[in-house]
Amino acid sequence: MLGVGIAAGFFNILAGGGSFLTLPLLIFLGLPPNIANGTNRLAILMQNVIAVGRFKQLNYHPGHFSFIAGSFTLPGAILGTWLATQVSNTQFKTSLAIIMLVMTIFTLVMTNREKSDTITPDEYTGGWRVAGPVYFLIGIYGGYIQAGIGFLIIAVILWQGLNLVHGNAVKLTIITLFTAVSLIIFAFNNQVNWVAGLLLGVGNIMGGLLGAQVSVKKGHAFIKKTISIAVIIFAVKLLLD
Questions:
Q1: Are 65 and 74 contacting, i.e. CB atoms less than 8 angstroms apart?
Q2: Distance CA 219, CA 23 (A)
Q3: Do 206 and 68 touch, CB atoms closer than 8 A?
Q4: Are the C-beta atoms of residues 172 and 46 closer than 8 Å to each other?
Q5: Eight-class DSSP state of 59
Q6: How far is the C-alpha of 196 from the C-alpha of 31, rounded, in Å?
Q7: Which helix (H) or strand (E) holds 158?
Q8: pLDDT value for 78
Q9: Is 103 within 8 Å of 204 (Cβ atoms)?
Q10: What pLDDT is attached to residue 187?
Q11: Distance in angstroms (rounded) separating the CA atoms of residues 207 and 146
Q12: Per-residue pLDDT at 140
C-alpha cells in the first residue's frame, strides 16, 4: 500500500492519474467501490496540502488564478461528489472502467499538443467566460471519480497559455480546494476507510514531495515526457485488467 502510494503521489504531482493505480488497488484489497472512492480522497488531500506548501517554498505561487478557477470548480465538485455517493457499487465499477478508457484516449491526444513555456498565473488576463464553465464540468468529474483529474486541469491550463511548472502549482491548489469538500461529503455518508486512507496518504506525501522537486528542477519538457509515459503505463494496465 505504501509503495503504491509513493508511485501514485509522484505521478499525481507531475501529471495526474495516480488514482488509476490506487482505486483499483483499494477495490482489489476488499473495499467496496464507493468506499474506495471516498478513501482515496483522504490520501489525495494529504498529499496535495504538503505539495502545495512545497511549491510555495520553491517560490512557485499559484496566485489568485487558482482561486478564480477553484470558485468555478467547487460547485461542480459538490454536485459530482453527491452523485458518487448515490450510485451503486456496480454502477460505480462500470463507470470507472468506461472513464479509464476514455481518459486514456484523451490523454494520448492531449499530450501531443505543443504549448509555449512563457506565461505565469499572474500574467493571465484571458477569458474566464469560456474557461469558467469548463472548470465547472471538470469539478463534476473530479467530485465523482477524481482519477485523471490532473490530466483535465492540465489540458485547460495549456489551453489558457500557462506553463506547466506554474501550472502544476495551480492544478494542486484547485484539487486541494475541492477534495477537502468532497472528503467531507464522503465522510458524512460513511464512505471513508480512515486507516487505509491514512496509510495511502503517507505514501502519497512521500511521492508528492519528490514530484514537486522534480517538477521545478526539470521543467516543462520533462513533465511533458512524464505525462506521456504515465499515459502509456495506465493504458497497458487498463488493457491487462
A1: no
A2: 29
A3: no
A4: no
A5: T
A6: 10
A7: helix 149-160
A8: 96
A9: no
A10: 95
A11: 18
A12: 95
Indicate the DSSP class of residue 119: B
CB-based contacts of 238, cutoff 8 Å, min separation 6: 20, 100, 101, 104
Cβ atoms of 84 and 92 within 8 Å: the answer is yes
pTM of the model: 0.78
| pLDDT at position 64 | 80
CB atoms within 10 A of CB 208: 31
Place of cell 490523454: 107
Q: What does the angle CA 210 – CA 212 – CA 217 come to, to the nearest 5 degrees?
A: 95
pLDDT averaged over consecutive 10-residue blocks of the chain (241 residues)?
A: 68 66 79 90 87 73 80 95 90 78 66 51 69 92 87 83 76 90 95 91 79 64 62 60 58
Handedness of CA 221, 59, 231, 160 (dihedral sign): negative
Residues in the chain: 241
User: Is the Cβ–Cβ distance between 73 and 231 less than 8 Å?
Assistant: no
C-alpha cell at 164: 506547466
Nearby residues of 179 by Cβ (< 8 Å), 6 or more positions away: 41, 44, 45, 48, 77, 142, 146
Q: Is residue 162 classed as helix, strand or coil in its secondary structure?
A: strand
Closest CA to 46 of 239, 224, 211, 179: 179
Separation of alpha carbons 28 and 137, rounded Å:
29
| DSSP reduced 3-state for 170 | helix
The pLDDT, as a whole number, for residue 114 is 47
